Amino acid sequence: MLLSDREILELVQQNPDFISPFVDHKVAEGRLPTYGLEPHGYTFRLHPQILWFRPKLKQTGSSLFVEDRDTDLIELSEGETFRLPPYHTLLVSSLETFALPSNMVGLLFGKTTYTKQGLFYNLTVVDAGFKGRLAFCIVNLNPAREIEIFPYGGIAQIMFAKCNEAAVPYISREELLRR
Question: Are residues 128 and 102 in contact, defined by beta-carbon separation less than 8 angstroms?
Answer without folding.
Answer: yes
